[in-house]
Amino acid sequence: MHYLSNPCRQTGSTLIISLIILVIMMLLGIAAVTTSNTQYKLAGNLQFEDSAMNNAETAVNTAETALANGAIAILDPGFTTPYVSANGPVTAGLYPANSGIDPLALNWPGVGGNGNSYSVQALGSQNYIIELMSINSRLTGSGQTVGGRASSGCSQVNTYRITGRGTSARGAVKFVQSFYSVLSC
């Protein structure tokens, strides 16, 4: 009886199958590393977008605080002088009603022809503009029709549209808009 096969008849299929399995495992490893690297970059980009959004929200908050504290008044020349796109606003960042500007198309960090900035820079990566939307508008629900007697408090407001622009370290840009009303009496 002869149980051993002739060594001359072996074809080396074990070596070929082992090499194929090794190549497949190497390709799976490369795919895993590439996927991990892509996810790392996506997480970083989301972090920079969040930073830009935070900066835009902070810029809007800064403008709202300036309006609430009276640091920016309706009598400011920026709200009363017509806006000329070639020259920029009369007062940095302030635009009169119906100025027709597009905050998304503005040259935010730029300087106008008359030397006034198009926007107010709150901090290095935060800019805002304020547009006057209405003057002495009556609050809805105020007057004699509510409660049957005249309201003793102030019921007129000036309404502003605030656009904040935030940027991040890698150049991500986010815009936030807010409508803000201030009592005018």
Task: Write a structural description.
- The longest helix has about 55 residues.
- It is built from 2 helices and 5 strands.
- The protein has one domain.
- The protein starts with 12 loop residues before the first helix and ends with a strand.
- With about 180 residues, it is α+β, with helices and mostly antiparallel strands.
- Strands 1, 2, 3, 4 and 5 form a 5-stranded mixed beta sheet that branches.
Features:
five-stranded mixed β-sheet, 2 helices, 5 strands
**How much beta, percentage-wise?**
15-25%
Number of domains as seen in the coordinates: 1
H-E order? HHEEEEE
Overall 3D geometry? rod-shaped
Major β-sheet annotation:
5 strands, mixed
Seen as an oligomer or otherwise, the chain set is: single chain
Rg over CA atoms? 32 Å
Taking the alpha carbons of the first and last residues, their distance comes to: 116 Å
Number of strands: 5
Stretches where pLDDT falls below 50 for ≥5 residues?
110-116
Helix proportion of residues, in percent? Answer: 25-40%
Tally the helices: 2
Structural class: alpha+beta
Question: What value does the average pLDDT take?
Answer: 80
Topology:
Layout: H1 13-68, H2 77-80, E1 94-95, E2 120-123, E3 126-138, E4 156-167, E5 173-183
Parallel strand pairs: 1-3
Antiparallel strand pairs: 2-3, 3-4, 4-5
